[in-house]
Design brief:
Elements lengths: L8 H14 L13 H14 L12 H5 L9 E4 L2 E6 L6 E2 L13 E3 L4 E4 L12 E3 L4 E2 L1 E2 L12 E3 L10 E2 L14 E3 L23 E3 L22 E3 L25 E3 L20 E3 L8 H11 L7 E3 L20 E3 L22 E3 L20 E3 L20 E3 L22 E3 L21 E3 L6 E2 L13 E3 L4 E2 L14 E3 L6 E3 L13 E3 L4 E4 L10 E3 L7 H4 L8 E3 L10 E6 L3 E5 L11 E6 L7 E2 L4 E2 L3 E5 L8 E7 L8 E2 L3 E6 L6 E9 L2 E9 L5 E8 L5 E2 L5 E2 L5 E13 L2 E13 L17 E5 L3 E8 L14 H4 L2 E12 L17 E4 L14 E10 L5 E6 L4 E7 L4 E7 L7 E3 L8 E2 L2 E2 L5 E13 L2 E4 L3 H4 L4 E8 L8 E14 L7 E5 L7 E12 L7 E2 L9 E5 L2 E5 L9 E9 L15 E7 L5 E7 L1 E2 L7 E8 L6 E7 ...
Parallel strand pairs: 2-4, 3-5, 4-6, 5-7, 6-9, 8-10, 9-11, 11-12, 12-13, 13-14, 14-15, 15-16, 16-17, 17-18, 18-19, 19-20, 20-21, 21-22, 22-24, 23-25, 24-26, 26-28, 27-29, 28-30, 30-31, 32-40
Antiparallel strand pairs: 1-2, 33-37, 34-35, 34-36, 34-38, 38-39, 38-40, 41-42, 42-45, 43-44, 43-46, 46-47, 48-51, 49-50, 50-52, 52-53, 53-54, 54-55, 55-75, 56-74, 57-58, 59-60, 59-64, 60-63, 61-62, 61-64, 62-63, 65-66, 66-74, 67-73, 68-72, 68-74, 69-70, 69-73, 71-72, 75-76, 76-77, 77-78, 78-79
Length: about 1200
Amino acid sequence: MMNSNQRHTPSFLFSICLVIFTTGFITASAQNLVPDNIEKAALLALYNSTDGENWTSNQWTLGQINSYPDSALFGVEVSNGDITSINLTFSGLSGTLPAALNDLQELVHLSFRNNALSGAIPDLSALKKLEVLDFYFNDFSGAIPATLGSLSALRTLNLTSRSNTAVKLTGPIPTQFSGLTNLESLYLSYNDLGQPEAIPASFSGLNSLRVLELTNCGLVPLSVSTGLSGLASLLNLGLGQNPSFVLPDGTLPDVLVNLPSLRNLTLTQNGFNKLPASFDLLLNLDYLHLGSTNYADTSRLASVVDTLRNSPKLKTLLLTNCNLSGLPSNFPQLTKLENLYIGNNNNLQTAQWEVIGQMPALTNLYANSCSLSELPATLADLTTLRGLYLQLNQLNPVPDVIRDIPALTHLNLSYNGITGLPSWTGTGNTPSWQFLYLNNNQIPLPLPSNFAGLTNLRYLNMSRNNLDGTLPSYFSGFSSIYYLDLSHNQLDSPLPDLSGWNVLSSVYLQHNEFTGDLPGYLSNVSITKSVVDISHNHFEGFPAYNASSSLSLYLDNNKFNFSDIVRQTPALRAFRYAPQDSIDTEKQLKAFDGGTLTLTAHVDTATTPQSSFQWFKYVDGINDISLTSAVPGGYRHTINVTSADDGSIYYYKITNTSYPVLTLQGRRQYLTVLCGILPDQLDFNAQRYLCAIKFTPLVSYPGRCRTLSWSWDFGDTGTSAYESPWHVYAADGTYDVSMRIRYTCGSCIGDTTLVKPVSFSLPQELLMDSLLSVTTDVRERVVAVTSTTFSDAWPLQFENTGLDNLSSYQNGTNGVWRNEGVHVYDVPRTLSSSTRIDKDGVFTLEHFNWQMAEADLIPDWIKANTMTEYSAFSYELENKDVLGINSAALYDYGGHLPSANGVNMRNNEMAFTGFEFLDNKASGNWLFGNQSVPAYDFFAIRMGWNYMAVVEARMSELVEVEKGDVSARHLMGFFNKRMNYIGNNDIICMEEHPTDPDLTLVVFRRAPFEGLWTGRLRVRNNVTPVISPDIDNTMAHTGRSSLRVTGDKSFKQELLQLDSGKTYMLSTWVSINEASLTPLVPGSGPGIDVIFKDKDDVVLSTASLTSIGRSIESWYQLKGIFAVPARNVIVELKFKTGNATTAWFDDLRLHPNKGNMKSYVYDLEDYRLQAVLDEENFASFFYYDVEGNLYLTKKETEEGIKTISQNVSYIRER
């Protein structure tokens, strides 16, 4: 804004001297040609007619207007005593413009852009000196004023109306506009020029016109006669968003005649099929915008290309938002095209724009927002391509073809959901990259090691990713970078040494986790920088520096203090330093009752100017008590201490007059008031159990003292607040362990700490097995003996997980005696050389010790049969015979009916479902529901000693287990019958057994017993299906239901635990309803893939089942054998329909290949047995009459279904 009283004396004198020298007399510009009262009246009229009291910004006041010209007004410029410019852009003006504006005859510039002015434009014909008239984005109405045609000095006229309202100016363009001979730019967009000859023939006389904007003017072919021809100076022409500006045959009107200088042409949203012949005359056309035109039919675009190929200078073409599916084959005929924009075309098909690779001069390709997931391989043929802009797509992973583009320097892959950079980044052609945009993805650390090869980078933006940790040291080698943005990640210190980045200009590190001192090179004056933003980190040290005054420095939301901030010199272009995080360190203060305590701040004690300190006693953060006023240099404050002050919290605030917007707050200082009483005994024991140490405090007090809290520091950064904690050390060594206790004696609080060394070494061997010896009674001449054991401590598989939280005697894990095992005594019987009935056939017996049965310590007693698992309803789920062979059963239909039984298999390696009783949960160990299901892993505990146990599991099976349920039996004392069940027992640590890799040594937080014990460990999990099954009750192989699959569908099976290297059989029945595809052919029909994944969801291997038997009443048996590749795999079944649209699967079973299984299907209405599936998964069907009597049995065979038996009953009336 120019002040009306300003005088530029030196320039004025120079002008006088120059005139005297050249002409011999003095002339001066006229002043106050428009009287001040006339100008004041015009300004007041403008204020009143445009609701001046409610302008939203740049307000005037009536006082300022009435004192004009002595008061300056925003947006008003005065020269030689007259108003020459009024600029009130974005000021909230509304209403109409007053006619009095026509009195400001010295106006050169008049602008009311972006307001809400309405009504007709007043007569401004008296403003003969006006050069710029800008009414952009208002709500004027009525005809375009013809009086504007008399403003012969106009260079710029902008009458663009607001785009989002129906209020517009209406044409035609007055013929008087032909008098605007100096007009260079004319903007009439978003008005109504749909009248015939709205652009008159006289318009062609505007020889100075360089820019003409007619966007969204309702143009029709008759709107333009010859009005555009002859505009010899026209450079830019905007005709976009005129959908009716097209001839009946779809051709654009031939109006672009005799425009020899035209370089930029916009024809968006005009809906034409082809371009007029006059395009051949646009010899200087450089830029053509055809966006938002429907080219879904590629032939329409091909027709346009046929015309454009004759444009000798066309370098830039925009085809954005054109519904493109591809590019026509003649597109490479645009031999001069350098810049191509095809963004916002979501239907691009990779194969249909491979012709792009034949473009001989293409330099920049913009294909943003196209939903691309792959790119044409022909991009590698573009030897001239420098810039590739692919933001806002779905290019994850990054396509390999980008690596092969030979001369690429600019690459934008932002907003693509990229979860990791390819390993080739930094190899091949990629070291030529100079500008790399990777922001707004999900890229993690570490970056590929080859990333170090991008040494030519000048611009790198990796903001808003998942960079968590420290940057690799090779970043120091990127010394050509001038712009670096790593903001909004989780990066932490240390930063790589960037002191060699001598051209670094802009650095954005905000919103990370950096700590420590700010590196000096980020603000050193020797490096020319424009922006350094390190806000929202944890920096807390600021080096002395002398930054450039052109630097914008943002330090807020760190841990800087005034001592840091006052170092900034000289004044910066922008400097943001508030707020800051709390400063100093938390302190634990101790003082005796009746004594004094000096509160001390250790920050900003010697700043220049001096900082002021104010001390507070914390209450609730709102009503805190002020202990002092803000005192310069008052960083110490002494208080008197009483027992009532115990637990009080103090803090301070710092201010500094040089930086008034910042108030620093010190971290809290906690006071404990001591009474002087010490414990009688203060010690602790450290007992090692395998891989961990258990610490037990030994503390006693005089009188009635008691401990309030425990605080342990184990000397390796580990801490605990438990009374008797466990700790696991990572390495052998001696550690200084501190035990701090806080205690109370009446109203008095005590606090003391004990520190003593503790040595730890990892165990080399396990000696537990040698700790147990057993003696038993012996009896002679025994003929026969067996023993049966029972247990009342069982970890059960509750489907209702709420039962886990009940007392063990309420949920059945304790107190219910179930058969556990049968033992036999296996020794040779006596046999005389000559048979003696009184002596032969007997043996000597060592009595059975039921408490030691699990330990297998008494010779010759053998487990003939062991029950290993029961259901929550006391049904036997698994047992093991004398040869170690398992038999198992599955119970379904609410857990009460057997759905399968098998020999030579465990319960958790068999599965069967007929899809009859899913109930949104698991069915027969298959997981096909949509609800979370409890899953359990069971492991035998071979031997336990206090907290330690030997578990029959490999360490890899337990390594991620943090807690488990332990059911235990005490092994000490013949008459000791105690059992114990501990739920959710924390696992402190574990290690592999020194001699047997199938065993793991585990240390639990709670010991079931002191001494020896044995039992079981149950690990609980919850599994949740991701995909719900589609159960069809109209189609079934047996029963009434089956699984309907449309398209491929996968189901993860997390209830199964299959053995590594073992082979398994998967069998099912499948049917389709498409006669043209039957009989089914292996490989083309439905199938199942068995996918094996590790715990990180990485695929290890896949087995495909496609072996199909012959059709039996439209059902085919699908089966196959597969081997499990590794331990602890997760099985996923992928059901495939093949060439069929839909397939139905039923009677799905899995079991070890060397085992035998039978399965059962029941009627859900009356729970009668409907089918039994034999070892080959072939069904026997059972039919019942209305009275429930079995009258018909059929058997499924490879030759079809045969009747086995049929009973016919006749009732004869008497």
